[in-house]
Amino acid sequence: MGAGHAHALYVHEHSAIHNMAPEVKLVATFLFVIAVAVTPRQAIWAFAVYASLLALITLVSRVKPGFLVVRLAAVVPFVLFALLIPFVAGGETVEVLGLTVSREGLWGAWNVLAKATLGAGASILLAATTEISEMLRGMSILKVPPALTAIAMFMVRYLVLVSGELARMRTAMTARGYDPRWLWQAKPLAASAGALFIRSYERGERVHAAMVARGFTGEMPDLGGRRGSRSDWIRAAGLVAVAVTVASFALVFS
Amino acid sequence: MSRVALSVAGLRYTYPDGREALRGIDLEVGVGQKVAILGPNGAGKTTLALHLNGIHEALAGTVTVGSLELRPESVGEIRRRVGLVFQDPDDQLFMPTVAADVAFGPANLGLVGEELEARVAEALAAVEALSLADRAPHHLSGGERRRVAIATVLAMRPDLLVLDEPTSGLDPAGRRELIATLQSLEMTQLVVTHDLPFALELCDRALILDGGVVVANGQTQKLLSNPDLLAAHRLEMPFGFVGFG
C-alpha cells in the first residue's frame, strides 16, 4: 500500500477498475447491491452469477482475493445471527447433519448470508479501488448535497488528528497514574471527552478562518478532475446490465 | 521608502471578552521588504496578522494593501493580495490531498481546468513540493506540511505573504529548508516569530510589538543587539550569540 494513501481499505494499484471515474463506480455499486437485494433467495444460480461478477472485477482490479476475504470479516456478526435462524424459526423441519432445523429458517439464513456477503464484497471492492478523496468527488458529481460531502471530507481529514489528540490525553493521564478499571473511575475520561470536544471546536474555528483567508464564501469550489468518460459508463453499464438481467430472470422465474 | 505594500494606521481591536489586543498600531512596509514582527506571548502579534486579511474586523483604524483600503466591499480582493499562513499547518491544510488544498484558494478566485492545474503546479514548484501533490496532508513531515501550507497561499499569487510562527515545531533541517524557500520568494513578507536568529537571517527590518502597540521599529540587527530593549519585552537571543542581546 502506498504511503500517501489515506485509508486502510484502499489498495494501491493501476487497473482498469482503479482508473474508472468514481461517480461511475458509485452508481454501479449501488445498482449492483439493489439487484442482489431484490433477488429471490431460491434463485441460487443468480447468486452464483453475482459472485462470479465480483470475482471477475477482483481479478481485473488486481486486488488480492485474500485481501477481500479478510475484509469480509466485517459481515461475521450478521453471519452469526443468520446461523441462529434455522434453530429458532418455526414451520416444517428437515434433518441436516443429524440436527433438526427449520426449512424456512435455513432459507432465511442463506438469504442473509448470501446478500450480506455480496453487498459487502461490492463495497469493499469499491473502497479498495477508489481513494477517499475521489469517492467524495464522485459524490459531489452525483449531486450529493455539498454540506454532506464537506462534512464527510472534514471527518476523514481530521479523524486522524482528533484520535491522535485523544491518545495523547490518555498517555498524559496514564503518566500521572490514572488506570481506570471500574465505572466510578470514569469521571476523568468523561472530562477528557469534554476537553476534546472543546479543542476540536476551536480547531474548527481556526480551520474556518484559514478557509475564509483563502476566499471561502460558504460554498466549496469545484476543483475539476476527470469526469466519467463514455467508455467508463459503457463498461459499468455492461456489468450492471448483467446483474439486473439476472435479477429480473430470478424474479420472473421463481 | 519606495512603493508601499502595506500600511496600517491606528489599528485597534478588543476581544469580545473585553481584553484589549491592539491599542493603536501604525506601521508601513515597502514593496519587497521582509519584516519580522517580534514580541512576547500575548503581545497581539497573531491578532495583528488576522487583521491584515480581514479575518478580524478592526474596532478603529485602517489597513491598506497597495492602494486598496480594507473595507467590507474590498475584502475579497484583499484576501487575494494578502496570503496568510497560519501557525498550525493542520489548520491550513483541510482538503484530502495536497493538490486539492493548493487548488482551494485559486478555485475560489474562479480558476478552473488547466489554468487551475497550472497554478497549483506553479505554487508547489515554488516550495519544491511538486512530488507531494497527491499525498494526504497527515502523511507529510512537519517541514513538508509547512512548505505546502505556504504553497496554498502562493497559489493565489499574493502581493504580501504573512506568516505566523513559521518555524515552530520544525527540526533544524526543516527550518533551514523553510528559510531557503522564503529567501527565494521575492514578494513582500511579514513574519511573526519568536525565533530571533530566524528573523535576523531572513528580515532586514523588524518591529517589536508589546501590549498591543509597536514599541520598536528598525534594522533587525540593531534591535537584536540591544539587550536592554529585548529584556524589557521578554525577548532574548539564544545562548552563544556573541555581540547580540
Account of the 3D structure:
The complex is a heterodimer of chains A (254) and B (245). Chain A has helices at residues 16-19, 22-38, 44-61, 65-71, 76-88, 103-129, 132-141, 146-175, 187-213, 230-253; strands at residues 93-96, 99-102. Chain A has 254 residues and is mainly alpha-helical. Chain A has two domains: 16-139 and 227-253, no CATH class; 145-213, no CATH class. Chain A has a two-stranded antiparallel sheet. In chain A, strand 1 and strand 2 (99-102) form a beta hairpin. In chain A, helix 2 (22-38) packs antiparallel against helix 6, helix 3 runs parallel beside helix 6 (103-129) and helix 7 (132-141) packs antiparallel against helix 8. The radius of gyration of chain A is 23 Å and the shape is flat. Residues 1-5 of chain A have low confidence and may be disordered. Chain B has 245 residues and is of the alpha/beta class. Chain B has a single domain (4-232), classed as Rossmann fold, CATH 3.40.50.300. Chain B is 36% helix and 25% strand. Chain B contains ten helices and ten strands. Chain B has helices at 45-51, 75-81, 89-92, 98-108, 113-126, 142-154, 172-184, 196-202, 220-224, 227-232; strands spanning 4-14, 20-30, 34-38, 60-65, 68-69, 82-85, 160-164, 188-192, 205-210, 213-219. A six-stranded mixed β-sheet of chain B has the order 6-7-8-3-9-10, with helices on both faces. In chain B, strands 2-1-4-5 form a four-stranded antiparallel β-sheet, covered by helices on one side. In chain B, helix 4 (98-108) runs parallel beside helix 6 (142-154), helix 5 (113-126) packs across helix 6 (142-154) and helix 6 packs parallel to helix 7 (172-184). The longest helix of chain B is centred in the middle third of the chain and has 14 residues, at 113-126. Chain B is globular, with a radius of gyration of 18 Å. The mean pLDDT of chain B is 93.
